[in-house]
Amino acid sequence: MAQAKSGDKVSVHYTGKLTDGTIFDSSEGREPLVFELGTGMVIAGFDNGITGMTIGDKKTVHIPVDEAYGPVNPEYMAMFPRNEIPADIPYEVGMQLNMHQDGTGQVMPVVVTEVTDTHITLDANHPLAGKDLIFDIELVAIG
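Structure for Peptidyl-prolyl cis-trans isomerase, as requested:
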């Protein structure tokens, strides 16, 4: 039976969990995730976990921070004076906002992590940065 290898188009069902068991994503009830192995379309640890599997295989893959979304980068956190935030934008800790990058026109999702009388702290790190991940994976198809 063929084993999944770099360059193969694969279809997988998965459930992604944090180390405390909290589920953050799953393909349950949806179409399988389809991508090409070895091309950087998914995090390295997920890619590596599927390599060598055969159709119908199921396994659990533990992915350390460095093979997932990396450590939290303090450079992606910034404090802004409250008076620089438009008054019509509501904000509270945990809220996700979209921030426009100067000159590029790109929108970057950020999360409000702290609100004080004078400042608001925004975090542009990926929500799963700094976390080890666990994926239950089933290889559905190759090709």
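The chain has one helix and nine strands.
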